[in-house]
UniProtKB/TrEMBL annotation:
Residues 34-53 are annotated as: Disordered. The keyword Plastid does not apply. Residues 222-282 form the Transglutaminase-like domain. GO terms for molecular function: peptidase activity. Pfam families: Transglut_core. Residues 1-31 form the signal peptide. Keywords: Hydrolase, Protease, Signal. GO terms for biological process: proteolysis. This is Transglutaminase-like putative cysteine protease. The keyword Hydrolase applies.
Length: 338
């Protein structure tokens, strides 16, 4: 068997489980359901983020495959964008050249969507393209007008629990991270809003860690060494928020990532809760996000059916059973077209 999954670094560099659709027509137009991301904001509350006018971008996702050897039981998966409050995804045409046995779209719990391509048999010296075209309308996130009423959620529902504990590379229980969390807690002033509490965490991460490119590491390594890249700094921010009982998660975009944190309006309950972004590494942005690149997935704790371990991001994946020597050659596509 041949099996390959992009590493976390390859996943970023290449950017520059419930089935929700079964796509049987190989040359048709895809359809998928999503959140009502672009609904009119008629009931806007002052503690909620607002959004700029959208910009439209055309992206292509998929796989290009050729093989010198016959194989069976081929399976390819790759992540695709989905609707979020700051973006709307419209699925257009697709180009499928070659024989596939199935193509499905599935949502993974926690904020990721995949295309799953089945290839029952592919003969030697043949090729296959599966290319999906998307129109993505992206909006900047504008910080809320009023933040004094925001509080840390007094109770966290089941759907939010994955944003409260440890995740791969987000080692919330590490001794140094716990010690910093306790120190930050002692600096809290009576009556201060949760917004101020999170801002203190944000500032401390940027004070403690200098941006430096490097290999993947735990959040605690960045704190210990005082240096790290966007992933390391985002992981540390998320860990510190979670230790303060503030739900937080990673947001993945092509070539970059940043965190989001969740707060509620005092007395408003879960219905008043909102996610707010910030830029852990790079130009300071807190509670806002000016970013044209699409959100690929949100979260950092995913269970992918084809993999045994919990993963922090959903990467491209390919496997097959070869009937001879040689290995299939494949390139996953994630490309801005216009």
């Amino acid at each position: 068997m041949v099996a390959a999954s992009f590493s976390r670094r390859q996943w970023l560099a290449a950017s520059g489980g419930t089935m929700v659709a079964a796509l049987l027509n190989p040359n048709g137009v895809l359809a998928q359901t999503g959140s009502a991301a672009a609904e009119a904001e008629t009931d806007q509350k002052p503690h909620e983020p607002t959004y700029s006018e959208s910009k439209s971008f055309d992206w292509q996702f998929g796989i290009k495959l050729d093989t010198p050897v016959t194989f069976t039981n081929g399976l390819a998966t790759f992540p695709i964008p989905m609707d979020w409050p700051e973006q709307t995804v419209t699925i257009g045409t697709r180009d499928v050249s070659g024989q596939i046995s199935q193509m499905q779209v599935r949502d993974l719990p926690g904020g990721a969507r995949q295309v799953v391509v089945g290839i029952a048999r592919m003969t030697a010296n043949s090729s296959l393209n599966v290319l999906l075209n998307y129109r993505i309308d992206k909006r900047n996130i504008i910080a809320p007008a009023e933040t004094d009423s925001l509080v840390i959620p007094p109770r966290v529902g089941r759907e939010m629990r994955s944003y409260m504990g440890s995740s791969p590379m987000i080692d919330t229980t590490n001794g140094q991270i716990r010690a910093l969390s306790r120190q930050l807690a002692t600096e809290t002033q009576e009556g201060e809003s949760a917004w101020v509490t999170v801002r203190r965490i944000y500032d401390r991460v940027r004070e403690e860690v200098t941006y430096t490119e490097g290999p993947i590491r735990n959040a605690s390594d960045a704190l210990k060494d005082g240096k790290g890249d966007c992933e390391d700094m985002t992981s540390l921010f998320v860990a510190l928020c979670r230790n303060a009982k503030i739900p937080a998660r990673m947001v993945w975009i092509p070539g970059h990532c940043y965190p989001e944190f969740y707060l509620e309006r005092d007395g408003g309950g879960n219905d008043s809760g909102c996610w707010y972004p910030c830029q852990a590494a790079g130009t300071e942005q807190f509670g806002e996000m000016q970013e044209d690149r699409p959100v690929l997935q949100k979260g950092d704790r995913f269970k992918v059916p084809e993999q045994r371990k919990i993963v922090r991001y959903v990467a491209e994946f390919f496997r097959c059973d070869r009937l001879g020597k040689g290995s299939p050659r494949f390139d996953f596509v994630r490309e801005l077209k216009s």
